[in-house]
Amino acid sequence: xxxxxxxxxxxxxxxxxxxxxxxxxxxxxxxxxxxxxxxxxxxxxxxxxxxxxxxxxxxxxxxxxxxxxxxxxxxxxxxxxxxxxxxxxxxxxxxxxxxxxxxxxxxxxxxxxxxxxxxxxxxxxxxxxxxxxxxxxxxxxxxxxxxxxxxxxxxxxxxxxxxxxxxxxxxxxxxxxxxxxxxxxxxxxxxxxxxxxxxxxxxxxxxxxxxxxxxxxxxxxxxxxxxxxxxxxxxxxxxxxxxxxxxxxxxxxxxxxxxxxxxxxxxxxxxxxxxxxxxxxxxxxxxxxxxxxxxxxxxxxxxxxxxxxxxxxxxxxxxxxxxxxxxxxxxxxxxxxxxxxxxxxxxxxxxxxxxxxxxxxxxxxxxxxxxxxxxxxxxxxxxxxxxxxxxxxxxxxxxxxxxxxxxxxxxxxxxxxxxx
Length: 420
Ligand SMILES: Cc1ncc(COP(=O)(O)O)c(C=O)c1O
Hints:
13 strands, 15 helices, seven-stranded mixed sheet, globular, single chain, 14% strand
């Protein structure tokens, strides 16, 4: 098939999928790293999103918009659930949710008995943190680059139960995996019960060696909870291969599901030890569903997860990862080493993907973000985190981002650095 035919076919498939099975077969032999540079191909995908011309959106790390096919399916679910109302809730809701959960478990490489659908990473990980029967003097290990909501949840447990939090300081550009593993290892004591680690640090995009950290922690008898908010559906991996005990993710980030969709994985043999937040005497202690009794909720959001999975799988996670890394490298390579420009993200492409953080010496992050928006129409977010030593703007392209858009960012950074 010629590329022109490919584009025509792709553009016409009913659910608006990126790759139909036949096209997938055609492209199966094209290495993801090569396809990552095929602008015509990614231009087709860009057409599946409704994008504003008011600004260039390089802040897709907070919430990443749904593609139009997924959004249409979501709106259909809203209408259909509303139309059938309680009849739907009483007769179909449970089966439909089980089907979505089973499908999601497959994407995660886990079993449905290890997965629940939540509203977001915060709910997922806080459910685990609150689920421990903390005793005075128990310890947990985490890092200064972890997400604030989880750090606060640990602080809450410390106030309530007298447990102790040990916060390690992570290097921004490590020489080896071992350097990171050692930082965590040094904080473990005989009283440590749980270690939290980000798979991808949200403020810098740094991808941490989760498997090695899990192996080290387990050899000391410590459970590991992975914050996978940004890793899930951006990086290619199966959760069980990480070797963790718990994993939480937000599906409204890289899976492209509607707002308010998340996932919690609990390894089968760890379910029984967690206390649920909400009571449900009808569910056995060993059933992960006990962690999911949240009452009546917007089920249409959960239903659309299945559509987001279809869209995601039509592209393929390895292709997504390669394209996103390519986009990040496209702009960081142009500014790394430029006087006054400070990259807060590792240079090694294996240690990062879509997200990177850049600052300008002498310019406050908030001023940089505001100036990029006002002068160059580039939307980013300021990160001014003294505890983590990260001062810059976080730049997060998505699959629909073009290299030309990133070049606008590069021009802005260079001009501002030269005049700072
Ligand atoms: C690393 C990390 N963990 C947790 C969260 C919380 O995600 P949510 O607000 O979807 O619960 C975020 C949000 O950006 C994050 O970046």
